[in-house]
Design goal:
Elements (H helix, E strand, L loop, with lengths): L4 E8 L3 H12 L4 E5 L12 E2 L1 H11 L9 E3 L1 E6 L2 E6 L5 E3 L2 H15 L2 E4 L3 E5 L4 E4 L4 E9 L6 H7 L9 E8 L5 H4 L1 E6 L5 E7 L4 E8 L6 H12 L8 E5 L9 E2 L2 E3 L15 H20 L6 H8 L1 H18 L4 H9 L2 H11 L5 H18 L1 H7 L6
Parallel strand pairs: 1-2, 1-11, 2-8, 5-13, 11-18
Antiparallel strand pairs: 3-7, 4-7, 5-6, 9-10, 10-11, 12-15, 12-16, 13-14, 14-15, 17-18
Bound molecules: flavin-adenine dinucleotide.
The site of flavin-adenine dinucleotide (FAD) has 38 residues, from α1, β2, β12, β15 and β16.
């Protein structure tokens, strides 16, 4: 009888989390197999905003700069609330725009160069946690010493571990459409963010070379008509209609406090590692993929794969703390009651906006932003009394 194929690490999913995990694990000399149901290049619905934080992780993991042409740099941003301009900022820390079609194929190629074996176009039909094995759709069984679930928001690995990949009551949902490129070069230099385009969420317009990625996203439970939100948002942008929009879940504010069990780990969206205010997930996907591979390598070296999840949990404490603080700040940013206060504090303070941008760039962490906002809240609440008496309107999405 043939022996069952056995690998040090099997990674399910070849997005940023899986590619990062594969590159790190292969670089550490482990026998790595990455499986993805898609063939690459493949699309993933995403704004394609790669922050300075993500770039830092990219450099750390792949030990190089991104290739020429992968990103378009933007150093200006415009904020709106309910259609009202809240300010434009120039010379903010750079934001990098890309298409996931290109980015993810590139990341996976880097993982292969590092020595990881990849099997794409292969769906996993079943996972048997008790036997440390999974079965591909064609019936091939594969054993693992450590399994990393980097298979996105609908993760089969999370389902095998916890019964379901996410809680429908707390999940986010986002819709996007690629619109024509912006004609005005000055407007096209700036990323646009619209608070209020969705309830407990926002809208975005990311101007790229060949198109403008326009989307809205927020908590699904609070946005029963998310399609209507995107139609209305697209109408305010006057760039075309939103017919043909696409949607995808966004694990937005309900991350796993235990991202794994025994020798099975969850990274990226599979662990819910998406910032509940900004919706940014690529940076945390790269970082958690790296940390999952590093934890797996260490426990395998020590001959105790069952210790992987405990080590990984402690190594991802910084990510979970950042997400927890963002969850605490979220009602200040998104709740209807706080909207006038938030807009006053945000609009009236270049320091708050600047800190928000530096936070996206990875230069400061959420605690600094929390402190800055908290200090400004009493004065902003006082000034916003007039707004609530009707001098200023905050249209509902
Ligand atoms: C509309 C939208 C806009 C967004 N915009 C941004 C943004 O601008 N910037 C940002 O930082 N983040 C953004 N995000 C979040 C970001 O897209 C995710 O956080 C990020 O893709 C997570 O990476 P990942 O590797 O964990 O998962 P994914 O990128 O989802 O990759 C998962 C991979 O697993 C594979 N897979 C799934 N199931 C299986 C299976 N059973 N067998 C084999 N393979 C499987 C999939 O084919 C896929 O390739 C956005 C999300 C949405 C929905």
């Amino acid at each position: 009888m043939d022996a069952i194929e056995t690998r040090d690490i099997v990674i399910l999913g070849g997005g940023p989390a899986g590619a990062a995990a594969a590159a790190i694990a292969a670089g550490l000399g482990l026998d790595v197999l990455l499986i993805d149901k898609a063939r690459f290049p493949r699309d993933k619905l995403c704004g394609g905003l790669f922050t300075g934080r993500a770039l830092g992780e990219y450099r750390r993991i792949f030990r190089r700069d991104p290739p020429e042409g992968m990103f378009e740099e933007r150093r200006a941003i415009r904020f709106f609330l309910g259609g009202l301009a809240m300010g434009r900022m120039e010379d903010v820390p750079p934001m990098y725009l890309t298409m996931r079609w290109d980015l993810d194929a590139h990341l996976l190629a880097l993982a292969r160069t590092a020595g990881a074996e990849t099997r794409t176009g292969q769906r996993v039909a079943g996972i048997d946690l008790a036997r440390d094995s999974l079965t591909l759709e064609d019936g091939t069984p594969i054993r693992y010493r450590v399994l990393i679930g980097a298979d996105g928001v609908t993760s089969s690995v999370a389902r095998a571990l916890f019964g379901r990949p996410f809680d429908p009551a707390t999940i986010g949902f986002a819709l996007e459409k690629e619109m024509p490129p912006l004609a005005d070069p000055d407007t096209a230099r700036a990323v646009r963010v619209d608070f209020g385009a969705a309830d407990w969420g926002y809208g975005w317009s990311f101007p790229k070379r060949g198109s403008t990625t326009v989307g809205v996203g927020g908590l699904q439970a609070r946005n029963p008509d998310m399609k209507g939100n995107l139609h209305r948002y697209a109408a305010t942008l006057e760039q075309g209609d939103a017919q043909g929009m696409k949607g995808h879940f966004l694990p937005f504010g309900d991350h796993r406090t235990r991202p794994g069990r025994g020798n099975v780990l969850l990274a990226g969206d599979a662990a819910g590692f998406v910032d509940p205010i900004t919706g940014e997930g690529i940076a945390h996907a790269l970082a958690s993929g790296r940390k999952a591979a590093e934890a797996a390598a260490r426990v395998l070296r020590e001959g105790r794969p069952e210790g992987a999840a405990a080590l990984y949990r402690s190594e991802t404490r910084d990510i979970r703390l950042s997400l927890r603080i963002a969850s605490l700040l979220r009602p200040i940013v998104f709740s209807k009651m706080m909207a006038p206060v938030f807009s006053r504090s945000f609009e009236g303070s270049t320091r708050v906006k600047g800190a928000y941008m530096r936070m996206l760039a990875g230069e400061v962490e959420y605690p600094a932003l929390l402190w800055l906002v908290a200090r400004r809240l009493p004065a902003a609440a006082w000034r916003s009394r007039g707004d609530r008496r009707g001098k200023r309107n905050y249209p509902s999405p």
